[in-house]
Design brief:
159 residues; Rossmann fold; two-stranded parallel ribbon; mainly alpha
């Protein structure tokens, strides 16, 4: 959450002339604002809608960079689908994301104490991300272009 997945994914896809899909945007397109979906259907209802959008994005046949919502990996069905794709984990820490969290302000999962909630969520999600990731990039202190350069280098070395 707030790791830069959408920004990095969008710019990486543009650089590689690939399609880009943001699953949070798919959820918004299908169901309206995420905060309203949370209010109406709770986290469980949101996660169900998110899982359907992730499955649709991952079923795309063309070369596509897909940015997942931070908690999408909690769904075991999504975990299974991701095993058939190259997964990049943008690892970060609270110090790095805190300014982004404060700027964005409207994240239902961070209600109350955003810094504490982010860390709690990161502690639960990190092991799942690590188990799914084919590539892990420590983004602390890196600009978006530097992250993309690092990812490009890793992918080119593996080719």
């Amino acid at each position: 959450m707030a790791a830069g997945k959408s920004v990095v994914g969008r710019e990486f896809a543009a650089r590689r002339r690939m399609k880009f899909t943001d699953t949070d945007q798919l959820v918004v397109n299908a169901h309206g604002p995420i905060s309203e979906l949370f209010a109406a259907r709770g986290e469980c209802g949101f996660r169900e809608a998110e899982a359907r959008c992730v499955a649709a994005a991952l079923a795309e046949r063309s070369a596509t960079v897909v940015s997942l919502g931070g908690g999408a990996i909690l769904d075991t069905g999504t975990q299974q689908l991701l095993r058939n794709h190259t997964v990049v984990f943008l690892d970060t820490d609270l110090e790095t994301v805190l300014p982004r969290i404060i700027r964005s302000g409207n994240r239902p999962m961070l209600a109350g104490d955003p810094a504490r909630r982010w860390q709690e969520l990161a502690d639960v999600r990190r092991p799942i991300y690590e188990s799914l990731a084919d590539i892990t990039i420590d983004t602390r202190g890196l600009s978006v272009p530097a992250i993309i350069d690092r990812l490009t280098t890793i992918l080119n070395e593996g080719a």
